[in-house]
Amino acid sequence: MEESAGGIKRAKPILFRKAAVAYFDECAHWSDAYREINTLKLSHLLPAFGKLLLTDITPASIARYQRDRRLAGASRCEINMETAVLRMILRKHRLWYLLAPDFRPLPEREDIGRALSLEEANRLLEAAAKSPSRSLAQNTKYCFPSCGRRATAVAATRDSPEKAHAVKLERAARLAQEWTTARTNLGWKQWVHRRESDISPNFLTRAVNEKKLKVPVRQ
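and the corresponding structure tokens:
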């Protein structure tokens, strides 16, 4: 911090790379899996923003990043997760509120994908078991049962976007309620997204804004 002529303390300019490292160091409560995910997202952000001061990041530079990542083949969901990490760091330094009115996340598909066959699921589990990433193997084994539970819903709604959307809202509501008693430091949107990767934070925000989903309250 530095002191201005009027005696008011203000933050010194800081590079995004330095701010990101400091923020990650402060988040000791993150699980290994969540840290691994955010570290991967940060690795895409650093080439674009690493040498910029936090105060030099603008809605235009974020939009340019979104376009470049799309041209590089990244999915909209992946890019939104990356800009979510950017948002966390800027929010920590009380700067995000300046950009938020002009920031536009990329639209994501809201339909449910094809259910894995038993053979495909087994191949997935085998590949995860061979991975050097322990968290990948653990998360795959954790997620597989929920994929199986969704199979019936997927088959029943594959040809009906309206029914698929309704089923997705039901899952979101159930998970949001589970979050209220879960032992986690994650916000409810991030927690739900980690439990069910097809339910994105943006989907939850829209559902709340459209009054199709209630914001859960911790018990």
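(Above: one complete record from the training split.) Confidence is low (pLDDT under 50) at residues 145-159.
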